[in-house]
Amino acid sequence: MTTNPQNVSCSESHSGRELHRAGWIIVDPSIVIENGYIEIENGFIRGVHKGAPKEKGIDHGPGVLMPPLVNTHLHLELSALKGCLPFDKGFKVWIKTLLEKRETLGQEKLIKEARKAVRNLIKSGNLYVGDISTLGITKPIIEDSALSGVCFHEFLGSGGQPFFAQKNDFISFSVAGHAPHTSSPKLLKALKQCAESNDLPFSIHVAESDDESEFIHDKKGQWADFLTDRGIDWSSWDIGSKTPVSYINDMGLFDPLTIAVHLLNVNNKDMEILAQSKTKVCVCPRSNQNLHGKLPDIEKMITAGIKPALGTDSLASCDSLNIFDEMDFVQKHYPGIDPAVIFAMGTINGARALGIEGLTGILSKGRKAQFLYRSVEAMNKKDLFQRIISNE
Ligand SMILES: [Zn+2]
Questions:
Q1: Which of 53, 57, 216, 310 measures 20 to 30 Å from 156, CA to CA?
Q2: From ligand 1's centre to the CA of 313, what distance in Å?
Q3: The pTM is what?
């Protein structure tokens, strides 16, 4: 069980001129200033400087000022299911139980727990999100909070319902397809088209489960039977002898405005496809560990030139929605990855995936005057990143 770091405070400035000083300032994972200050004017960063400010400012202390965290993939509407679902009976049982329990809980409870989860995100410095909602209940909760990012309305099956996308300065509304094995190609293409025409990211879970890979490769198996039993005609889907990644690629859905989430079952060719198409990638390792007992090959992604973002998935498959916890998990399970790279996954890589890198992800000129202070004491830059992403 991981705990939220207690030593995080969030600062936000809306108007006037302010100077914020600290022992360390992380401008971005490659630019770290020891003993410096951030200059703010009218709610935006004007510059970051070395040394002590000559004017009166706010001295945060010897710790670090850093960009807020970005949770690129989560499902706030499933927050009420925390601790209710079995992880040890397989993915299908987990999904079946999830749908049943969600139904019995009722919308009021789902909304109440989603609101609570939002409060915890803000308290722990996770100020930007890519939220996935099939019920469409989280949009007003996010709009009513201090969170920013993208609300993705998720669809599956053959669609049929109307959908829309809208780009805004702080909270945009886009669409997501659930997964290649749960949604018709016609629906996925229409969703992608809707997001793209509004210059917004489109999100989709890809290559998460063995059932998904088996169905798309062999055109048979338990998933094929499941769809057929439900009266879903998948005979026109162009599957067979493909991986989930190659199937989605053949559909033309991979480009820099698509976020492919999970990518547990991928081969070298798949990695190449994702890297060459500059598709954004988001991994949720703690959720994968709980639901599938395996982890994405993040090292191989990085070697292929991919810059993965981090998500937590939902509280139905993960202990917390806090990216500090996810970074801590990555550090422990992938000791070969540079801590500064893990930090990038939880900040700028997520901002790029959600298309909000002009707003946040780094602390440089023009970004929103919003940052975290963590009271860590570090000896050098490497030590600094290690301490930030560690929960101990
Ligand atoms: Zn998800």
A1: 310
A2: 5
A3: 0.96
